Amino acid sequence: MRNKFIILYSIVCFVIILFLVHGVSFNHSFIIFGRLQRLCALLLTAAAITYATLVFQSITTNKILTPSLMGYEHFYLLIQVVLLLLCGANSILIASKTFNFLLAAVLMILYSALLYRGFFKNRNKKLYFILLIGLVLSIFFHSTTQFLQMRIDPNEYAYVQQAMFSSLGRTSVATLFMAFALMLFTFIGLWRYFKYLDLINLGRNYARGLGVNYDRVVRWQLAGISILVSVSTALIGPITFVGIFVSGITYRLVTKASHRTTISFGFGVALILLISAQFLIERLFNYKQSLGVLVNLFGGVYFMFLLFKFLRK
Amino acid sequence: MIEISSLHKKIGYKTILKGINLKIPEGKLICLIGPNGAGKSSLLSLIAQLEKVEKGVIELDNRDIRSYRLAEFSMKLAYLQQHNHLDLKLTVAELVAYGRFPYSKGRLTANDHQIIEQTIGELNLKSLRNSFIDELSGGERQRVFLAMILAQDTPYILLDEPLNNLDMKHAVEIMQHCKNLVCTQGKTILIVVHDINFAANYADYIVGMKDGNLAFMLPTSQAIQADVLGKLFNIDFQIITSGVTVMCNYYFGKSRL
């Protein structure tokens, strides 16, 4: 287990250094600064996605779900399209990265607050019921977005297309700081429940039997997860799906159920996936590919590999 | 002592428990028997506070169970549920260690380790110690979860069909172990069993339930009678005594005697 961590984090260090210094000499401080900024965005995203996905899977006791099921990403696109239609491409809400980030993050957090309200208020509502509502809503957002897209000026459509794919191009120093602050507060808030997370794995009955207020822990975790997902989506766009690959690889390589282990391992996996994808985009594809597409390609290949291995047995 | 007064329970429009009044004495092994759907598991999960008591009162040591803080309650009473399956990479020792959570809050002391090892030894799980629980057979998993509950070391223990999936040897061992805990450590153990013969041979008291009502609560010798059991299960019984063991024969079904 310890060796796996050492190997994993050596690879992480290697990709980080490669990403930062490949093809530049040290007097290009401007380029290095830009790369550092993108690296920070990736670090934040990796932390948010890893925590959100792994804990979400523990709560739902299902290892193939991601929080993106709740419709955050389709809702994000809908926000962008509606903004474009209502305010036009030159509006400050679209042109300014900061305002756009803030608006999207706040709206998504409000959306999840509304979605979970029923779950928090009515104890008899099962979590899976809420998931189903999220799924239906996300289909609704998706088709509404498609419908509205038809009404957009073809020149402005390029903006929507840009929003559809995750990219680091929309971050700025200000949005990074805001995302960092939001996530920091969220993680600090969640910290006092951290020791109870492993008991959540045992299910409600045993968690309660061992003196843990399961319902309260789950409620806070879900609230935290929705902030993390909202912030990371507002920061670089739809990317939460990556969580499935992160958790899949983590559960395969880690033979411990403790969240301390899985989350710190998953964070490394997420970093390697995201940074190497971003590296390839910058050096090989000359910024013509989107981060999400490339990471999903990696992950997809890995899953095909797993599938073939499974079928051959 | 657990004292239950006029306890009702509804699920949807169906009444599961229809006013149960029951006193469960301390330091005894009590078996809960009755046909399917009698409300045995519901009663247990209400005592264990897994569901909210909506009508009626349950008192544990003369205090309403709702007034206990959850952490405090978990040092008083432990509960083993009927179905135990977890898809987790947890070893047997790690799972049993969770039983100490109410005391250690995740930081195990030397005393905790000693209790964990002792429980693993007592339930003959030493050879499985480092196996993952998702790779165990049903019976082994059942014993591992029981070990976790026993490591919790509470004065009251509720077991919902702990003999599920167990072979004869292990079933006997578990019942002997429970009996032993009652006799030597004065624990109060309430067990739901379907094999009436285990109840007949190990219980101090037998509680019979039927259709959400309490049918009887009697010392074992008075409960294991052909007419009492016949009325409860609605089939005919023949009680056979051989030495110290009692056998309830019901395999002939209804009224061939």
TrEMBL record, chain A:
Q: Where are the transmembrane segments?
A: 6-27, 39-59, 74-94, 101-120, 126-143, 173-194, 222-251, 263-281, 293-311
Q: Gene3D superfamilies under this entry?
A: ABC transporter involved in vitamin B12 uptake, BtuC
What Gene Ontology biological process does one annotation of this record name? siderophore-iron import into cell
Q: What top-level branch of life does the organism fall under? A: Bacteria
Name the Pfam families for this protein: FecCD
The UniProt entry lists the main location of this chain as membrane
Keywords noted in UniProt: Cell membrane, Membrane, Transmembrane, Transmembrane helix, Transport
PANTHER family, alphabetically?
A: FERRIC ENTEROBACTIN TRANSPORT SYSTEM PERMEASE PROTEIN, PETROBACTIN IMPORT SYSTEM PERMEASE PROTEIN YCLO
From the Swiss-Prot or TrEMBL record, give the protein name. Answer: Iron chelate uptake ABC transporter family permease subunit
What organism is the protein native to? Answer: Rhinopithecimicrobium faecis
TrEMBL record, chain B:
**Superkingdom as given in the UniProt entry:** Bacteria
Localization of this protein: Cell membrane
> InterPro entries, per this entry?
AAA+_ATPase, ABC_transporter-like_ATP-bd, ABC_transporter-like_CS, P-loop_NTPase, Siderophore_ABC-ATPase
| Topology class, membrane | Peripheral membrane protein
Question: Could you tell me the keywords of this UniProt record?
Answer: ATP-binding, Cell membrane, Ion transport, Iron, Iron transport, Membrane, Nucleotide-binding, Transport
SUPFAM superfamilies associated with the record: P-loop containing nucleoside triphosphate hydrolases (SSF52540)
Q: Name one GO cellular component term.
A: plasma membrane
Q: Which Gene Ontology MF annotations are present?
A: ATP binding; ATP hydrolysis activity
**Residues of the ABC transporter domain:** 2-236
One biological process term in Gene Ontology: iron ion transport
PANTHER family in UniProt: IRON(3+)-HYDROXAMATE IMPORT ATP-BINDING PROTEIN FHUC, PETROBACTIN IMPORT ATP-BINDING PROTEIN YCLP
Q: Can you say what this protein is called?
A: ATP-binding cassette domain-containing protein
UniProt organism field:
Rhinopithecimicrobium faecis
